[in-house]
Write a structure and sequence with these properties.
Layout lengths: L7 E5 L7 H15 L3 E6 L3 E6 L2 H11 L2 H6 L9 H14 L8 H6 L5 E3 L6 H9 L12 H8 L1 H35 L3 H8 L4 E2 L5 E4 L1 E2 L4 H10 L2 H31 L7 H12 L12 H37 L4 H5 L1 H35 L4 H29 L6 E2 L2 E2 L1 E2 L3 E2 L9 H36 L4 H8 L7 H11 L7 H17 L8 H23 L14 H23 L2 H11 L1 H4 L11 H5 E5 L8 E3 L7 E5 L11 H31 L5 H18 L1
Parallel strand pairs: 6-13
Antiparallel strand pairs: 1-3, 1-4, 2-3, 5-7, 8-9, 10-11, 12-14
Helix pairs in contact: 2-12, 4-12, 6-7, 7-8, 8-10, 8-11, 8-21, 9-10, 11-22, 11-26, 13-15, 13-16, 15-16, 15-17, 16-20, 16-22, 17-21, 20-21, 20-22, 22-26
């Protein structure tokens, strides 16, 4: 039975005897034999080499890395070493074995000497448990078997699923709050005074939306749009934004507690990644000298410049999307098709959002190459350092790709487009878009909804289907010649390893960054759920539905569609925690800005308390926002239009039309009320952010990072160890 336990399988094409590749392969396998490895060769359509490490390697590992007090108790018999540790040690030695040509496995794989190297999915009891309790769609709402995941995939993967499960669980509260906000908006908005005024404004005539062949229009045409806007943009949103800022902090604090519990249960507190790496290097080669820490300001500067260039490119893409929307708006409004011209603004926003989604997909493909280049420039010392550098760069890149056009819609749309008679134009030709008279927040809502829905449907389906289809295709390439070979030697039974190794080889390959991509996807989703959540209160609900499916989809991919991952040890989720904390702070700023700048919350409040009928007399029975819409529109004299503007129908004499802004009727400069609102927006922003950040700090202080139980457990262990020594 013991004979057939193989730690790793190397796969290679069948090369001709004496060819360069064959010689290189032989050299590498000889190096392994010198280290005492057992190697078994099986020939199929490919050459399979099973590799088993000698026992003394694991004894050394245990001697170097067990803590001293447990060493005395079992100095004679080595404990059974977990499979995950076996695979990790063997993987390290394989990756760091150097041939006489100074080539490592990595170089040989680049030169196609070996095609693949992977640990096996074996028929173990634990694998069957995972398949039954975790990697199937039937157990969608059951708790994950984290302990079993750890025993099969190692701590790093188990921590990812523990974190994802915890995040999904806490999303339930955020999703309920979001639903409550939308429900409050839906019941309150029908009676909202502002949307009622827009719906009744039958004789308020507005300036045309484009330069050529656009007619004037009546404000009450946009009644439905106004109602939808006030469903999202009301007092409940402010409370919800505040709630989400606190939720983000509480989520991270509770996760730190959860992580501390897990790390103690798995005995990871004393574990040190650097020490483990040094131990493995010494086991592999006792003459090994450690690589020292280095820091080069020159390299860092180059990386910084590259990063800034990349961000510039992304801002350029955001600009291109802005131009697309301005041009599309102009073309749609002049279109012969009635549907297009009537709903030009919404269609321009929708197609813009779809285009943005496409750029996200394309830039995701581009990003990994650029980050690898930056990583190569920085030459980090350990693997985890390399991973951290890579994480920060890729996250920034993805973040800007996802949020550049949202930032434009939230904070610039309709604020930089001039006024009738003096519009800001792209290339002197196309007018920039304007906001809707009931505010810009609906544009942001549509953009976020489209991107989140597309990301969660199309991207997830592709993420599941591509591995599934490629696995089926690999299975189809079964060797036809096997049968004819077998005919001559019918009595020789097929080696049981052969089938198992071939089945493992047919699965999709995994790379070092397979888990990284899963993290990245969820962290970007977390940014959507927190940063502009004031404009899209349904984001947490969408995230919740997505995550429940995502957990099991990842499980099925890992267990059934992909080769086994090399288990890695870790005691937390690494640098992702800092990334999540940064997003939490950005969420406070983002939501504060959305309420202060994008939403109409502040102008309405300023009007209520400074300009409304309520301030003049004691109209207690009256709604204080009565007259707000009329107050927020400015007057424009038609003869001041730019000469090339063609308006239908033609106008005669001096007529007055309206547009949304706070400007004087004679010289179109800003009114005092504009500056009042501007000051109120700033005051609100400063107040909101300070209050939210204070609440975040209080929450972080109130919830200790490490539970008392864990602290006491560590204390008792230290105490008993010292007493034993004494």
């Amino acid at each position: 039975q013991n004979e057939e336990k193989w730690d790793f399988v190397l796969v290679s094409d069948i090369h001709e005897m004496g060819s360069e590749k064959e010689i290189k392969r032989k050299k590498f396998l000889d190096e392994l034999s010198k280290k005492g490895f057992t190697i078994k060769k099986i020939e199929d359509t490919k050459l399979f080499y099973g590799v088993r490490a000698p026992q003394h390697i694991f004894w050394k590992y245990q001697c170097l890395l067990t803590n001293p007090n447990s060493r005395q108790q079992n100095s004679t018999a080595p404990q059974d070493i977990p499979v995950t540790t076996r695979i990790r040690v063997v993987h390290f030695i394989l990756q760091n074995t150097v041939t006489s040509d100074l080539e490592k496995l990595h170089d040989l794989m680049k030169k196609k000497v070996f095609e693949a190297a992977f640990p096996l999915h074996k028929k173990e009891e634990i694998r069957e448990i995972l398949k039954k309790k975790w990697a199937r769609w039937r157990v969608l709402f059951k708790e994950q078997p984290i302990e079993e995941i750890r025993c099969y995939f190692g701590e790093k993967v188990a921590l990812y699923f523990a974190w994802l499960g915890w995040y999904t669980y806490l999303l339930i509260f955020a999703a309920l709050a979001g639903l409550a906000t939308v429900a409050a908006g839906a019941t309150v908005f029908s009676s909202s005074q502002v949307s009622k005024e827009i719906c009744d404004a039958n004789n308020t005539i507005m300036c045309p939306l484009c330069d050529q062949n656009c007619s004037f229009w009546v404000l009450s045409d946009t009644c439905t749009y106004a109602k939808v806007t006030h469903m999202i943009d009301n007092e409940a949103t402010v409370v919800f934004a505040m709630f989400m800022a606190i939720w983000a902090t509480v989520f991270l604090e509770l996760w730190k507690r959860e992580r501390a519990t897990v790390a103690t249960n798995w005995d990871l507190y004393g574990w040190d990644e650097e020490e483990e790496e040094l131990a493995l290097q010494l086991i592999n080669n006792s003459q090994h000298e450690p690589r020292l820490y280095q820091h080069s300001y020159f390299r860092s500067t180059i990386v910084l410049i590259l990063a800034l260039l990349m961000i510039m490119v992304l801002i350029g893409i955001a600009h291109a999307l802005v131009i697309y929307r301005a041009v599309a708006m102009a073309l749609f409004t002049q279109s012969e098709v009635n549907l297009l011209s009537k709903h030009a603004d919404i269609i321009a926003v929708m197609t813009g959002a779809v285009l943005h989604y496409i750029t996200i997909v394309i830039m995701t493909k581009v990003r990994s190459h650029t980050a690898c280049l930056a990583g190569f420039l920085q030459k980090p010392r350990t693997f985890s350092q390399r991973e951290n550098n890579f994480t920060v760069k890729i996250f920034l890149f993805q973040f800007f790709t996802n949020f550049s056009s949202l930032i434009y819609i939230a904070f610039f749309l309709g604020r930089i487009n001039g006024h009738p008679g003096h519009y800001v134009r792209i290339a002197g030709h196309w007018r920039l878009e304007e906001c809707h008279p009931s505010g810009c927040i609906t544009d942001l809502f549509i953009q976020m909804a489209v991107i989140m829905l597309l990301k969660q449907t199309i991207s997830n389906i592709m993420e599941y289907l591509i591995p599934l289809i490629s696995h089926q295709l690999r299975k189809k390439q079964k060797p036809p010649k096997k049968r004819s070979v077998m005919l001559g030697e019918e009595e020789e039974a097929e080696d049981p390893c052969k089938r198992q190794w071939r089945n493992n080889y047919e699965l999709n390959e995994v790379n070092v960054f397979s888990l990284f991509n899963e993290y990245l996807e969820i962290v970007i989703q977390y940014s959507f759920t927190t940063i502009f959540v004031a404009a899209f209160p349904l984001a947490p609900l969408l995230a919740l539905i997505n995550n429940v499916i995502e957990i099991h989809m990842d499980a099925i991919k890992m267990m059934r569609l992909r080769r086994r991952m090399v288990p890695r040890k870790a005691k937390d989720i690494g640098i992702w925690l800092q990334v999540l904390e940064a997003i939490g702070t950005l969420a406070v700023i983002g939501n504060g800005l959305v309420i202060a700048i994008t939403s109409d919350f502040i102008p309405v409040q300023v009007y209520k308390y400074m300009y409304s009928p309520c301030t003049r007399g004691n109209h207690t029975s009256m709604d204080c926002s009565t007259g707000y819409i009329n107050n927020s529109l400015s007057v424009f004299h038609i003869q001041d239009f730019e000469p090339h503007t063609k308006v239908l129908p033609e106008f005669k004499g001096e007529q007055i039309k309206e547009y949304r802004d706070y400007r004087n009727a004679d010289d179109y400069t800003y009114t005092v009320q504009f500056w009042h609102i501007f000051a109120a927006r700033l005051a609100f922003l400063i107040l909101f952010e300070h209050v939210a950040l204070c609440v975040k700090l209080i929450a972080a202080w109130y919830i200790p990072d490490v539970p008392q139980r864990v602290k006491n457990q560590i204390l008792k262990e230290k105490h008993s160890n010292l007493r034993n020594e004494l």
